[in-house]
Amino acid sequence: MTRALDWDREGLLWPHREASQFVSIGRAKWHVQRMAPKGRAAPQLLLLHGTGGSCHSWRGLLPSLAKHYDVIAPDLPRHAFTTGHPPEALSIPAMAHAVLQLIHALKLAPVAIIGHSAGVAVALQLAFAHGYAGPIIGLNAALRPFPGLAAQIFPAFAKLLFVNPLVPRIFSRSLRRSGEAERFLIKSTGSQIDEEGMACYEVLFQNPRHAKGALAMMANWDLPRLNERMPKIVNEVLLIHSDLDKAIPLASAHHAKRLLPSAQLEVLHGLGHLAHEESPARILELIEDFLADQVVADDC
Q1: Residue-wise DSSP of 27-82
Q2: pLDDT > 90 fraction of the chain, expressed in percent and rounded
Q3: Which of 43, 183, 222, 292 has a Cα-to-Cα distance from 158 of 20 to 30 A?
Q4: Does residue 5 fall inside a structural domain?
Q5: Neighbours of 271 (CB within 10 A)
Q6: Other beta carbons within 10 Å of 190
Q7: CATH number for position 155
Q8: What digits encode the pLDDT tens for the residues 233-280?
């Protein structure tokens, strides 16, 4: 059995470590970072990272958002330091249900949800199936299914990789050579990020258990069904997408905008899939402008 990440070992380099807490729900143990204005209540924002990531991806946005909001950023099931969820908990409906359990456990009432990549699909599922009615911000959203047969072949292939215990180990081992993790990230996302963020991704990529969680998420992802439901999602949605995203092409954002009844699209130039890590100030400006029209922030 592969070793889980250790909060008192690998977690020592995690950004905003002082904002972390662990929440037990049944057999699951969630790692959550929470940051808010000191000494007063504030509207709550829920942040959901994408496949293979963790809450560290929000490191550049957390302090700024926390000036006016109570910001909650969990590691999603079977990712990073969140443990105890079974593999079948990683479909879009099951992931949304797990996040809903966390919302109830923490007694949250988020006024908005911000998702990155696959995290946007979880946010939309919360709206469709669980009554979340607030605005949603989707950063480089992964919402468009593969065309044709690839829509069936890719999940099936991911399942084959997931059930083979050697695959996550081989992947993780291949990225332990100096510079390999950074080259992989740049090639797959089109983004170049800071050393702090890269150090976290190196830890994640080199851990077979985390890699297996990412594979399980891909194996259980049913975007065609979500696409069928998207025309029924009436939440106000802001899609922010980068033109140099190598993971999710810009056409995917235009596709999602057409399906969602109340969506708008902002295109960022010169950034990749991890735009919120490359240029958090540009993302923050778009978020704050959108939320100013949607919710009342604390002392904005």
Answers
A1: TEEEEEEEE--TTS---EEEEE--TT--GGGGTTTHHHHTTTSEEEEEPPTTSTT-
A2: 71
A3: 183
A4: no
A5: 25
A6: 22
A7: 3.40.50.1820
A8: 999 999 999 999 999 999 999 999 999 999 999 999 999 999 999 999
Query: Considering the domain boundaries, does residue 112 fall inside one?
Result: yes
Straight-line distance from the first to the last Cα atom of the chain, in angstroms, rounded to the nearest whole number: 49
Nearest CA to 13 among 272, 194, 214? 194
Instruction: Report the distance separating Cα 213 and Cα 125, nearest Å.
Output: 20
Q: Where would I find the H helices in the chain?
A: 62-65, 92-105, 118-130, 150-163, 166-174, 180-189, 195-205, 208-219, 223-229, 250-259, 275-278, 280-294
Domain holding 55, by residue range, is 10-294
Of 38, 37, 31, 36, the C-alpha closest to 14 is: 31
Residue 4 belongs to some domain of the structure: no
CA distance to 125, 152, 203, per residue, from 222 (Å): 11, 9, 28
Number of domains in the chain: 1
Is residue 149 scored above 60 in pLDDT? Answer: no
- Tell me the pLDDT tens digit for each residue of 19-73: 999 999 999 999 999 999 998 899 999 999 999 999 999 999 999 999 999 999 9
What does the CA dihedral 168, 171, 176, 180 come to, rounded to 10 degrees? -150
pTM value? 0.90
Question: Is residue 299 a part of any domain in this protein?
Answer: no
The DSSP output letter for 138 is E
Q: How many CB atoms lie within 10 A of CB 66?
A: 20
The set of residues, in sequence order, having a beta carbon less than 8 Å from that of 10 and lying 6+ positions away, is 203, 207
Of 62, 116, 106, give the one whose Cα is nearest residue 241: 116
pLDDT(179) > 90: no
Closest C-alpha among 218, 12, 4 to residue 117? 218
DSSP lists the bridge partners of residue 45 as 71, 112
Phi/psi for 159 (5° steps) reads -65, -40
Please give the backbone phi and psi of residue 25, each rounded to the nearest 5 degrees, phi first. Answer: -135, 105
